[in-house]
């Protein structure tokens, strides 16, 4: 039974027609309908995704365009300001300032290290003075070599003074 108003089968007529089909036909029909629905779903998904991406990139493009325009306007007025006020435009020094503060730190490190590591030797037997001897020497002013027993005075051996 065809609905003459829409040109489509009415729902009841469709159900009636469906039950007249053999089982294999019903199964194939259902599979076909599901396949079509899935394909429509995938199509709609990619369509929405495409639209979302399109809107995203348009907004991003507009954002960068506006930013560039605003930055251009800012630069223009900045130049205008220095032109009218006849003030010296400050030179960007950030990069210049950073370099010297970093370099000395690197240069000082090895120098300080070599002074800490410097080993003092006994003038009598030539053996290196131990840490406890150096400590004793700086604290009490007097120390004795642990190898030969020679006494030292702080002022005599200290390199710095
Ligand atoms: Zn010694």
Give a structural overview.
By secondary structure, this protein is mostly helical. It has two domains: about 10-85; about 95-155, no CATH class. The chain contains five helices and two strands; from the N terminus they run ααααββα. The longest helix has about 60 residues, at about 25-85. The protein is elongated. Mean pLDDT is about 80; it is low at about 110-115. The structure holds zinc ion. Zinc ion binds near residues 127, 145 and 147. Zinc ion (ZN) binds near residues 124 and 147.
Strand order of the largest sheet: 1-2
Mean pLDDT reading: 79
Assembly of the depicted chains:
single chain
Helix content: 55-70%
Q: Measure the end-to-end span.
A: 119 Å
Measured by DSSP, the beta-strand proportion falls in under 5%
Tally of contiguous helical segments: 5
Number of folding domains?
2
Largest sheet: number of strands, sense, barrel closure: 2 strands, antiparallel
How many E-type strands?
2
Order of helices and strands: HHHHEEH
The kinds of small molecule bound in this structure are: zinc ion
- Rg from Cα: 46 Å
